[in-house]
Amino acid sequence: MEAADFFRVSECKGQKTIDGEQVPLVLAPSDDGAKSSGCEALVEALKANREWVEGKVVANSGVLLRGFDVRDAAEFNAVVEALGWPDIRYVGPAPRTHVHGRVWTANEGPLEEFIYYHHEMVLIKEFPGKVILFCEVPPPSGGETPFVPSFRVTERALEEFPETVEELDARGLRYTFTALSKNDTKSMRGRGWEDAFATSDKAEAERRARALGMDVEWLPGGGVRTVLGPRKLTRVFPGRKGRRMWFNTVVGMHGKELSSATLADGSEIPADFVRRCGEIIEEESIQFRWQKGDILILDNLATLHGRRPSLPPRRVLVATCK
């Protein structure tokens, strides 16, 4: 089945037009609803049009599939498999639980807290190319997943702080993050190192950390401090119009209780620069209200994403792909 026969371009409140493209691109069933509205039909259409779908994800930075009656983790997993992108295991501080196949819960930290904008696994050597989110239970209020076209942040930061941007890119960045031994689900960054590295053996954890491009420092009480760097402030990826992506976590980690972001030599990043970049990121954010069955495919090389505070219940599942 041709994509044009199955999908129609729709709209959602909150989307923006950036460089002539809808962000996100909303794809809904064609008007022949009996043939195209169910999950099984969606799976077959995605299998038949993988290159077309990936082209839309890259061109529009994100694609929202809406109205296909995807009901649960098993059906979402079938959609993920249909897209054909290889799996990549999540490594990071967010507490998560395996649900089905390639599907995990999204960050299980307290719903009342804001999860700051980030590229998934931005700091380690191998990061996802795509992040796929599925809304199983939409929240009664809040709980949006805002995302930001990263190149827009770089463009605006260069307009206001050209010398600082180029200096940080040239000198590189250093990040540290502290984790406990066991998971703390009361924190949105509460994943313990044993879960993160899938081992309770410190020597094996060190080996796995080095393979991911990080050093570790063991702390009294069983915790660990991970050290990463140097890292670039921006990155340019093939097929994305030469755009410089804001591929870092400076704003999210700078001066926080469990983390830090500095220049590679340990010197401080100007606080006014970090504050203003945070404002730019928020100003460029895009968000929509989740509906049950929504599937959002984000180009992880081109978008930061986060989570607004939410009233319960809210259940959003995730798959990360190469």
TrEMBL record:
Domain TauD/TfdA-like: 42-319
Stored Gene3D superfamilies: Clavaminate synthase-like
GO MF, one annotated term: oxidoreductase activity
Keywords, comma-separated and alphabetical: Oxidoreductase
InterPro entries per UniProt: AlphaKG_dependent_hydroxylases (IPR050411), TauD-like_sf (IPR042098), TauD/TfdA-like (IPR003819)
Name of the protein in its database record: TauD/TfdA-like domain-containing protein
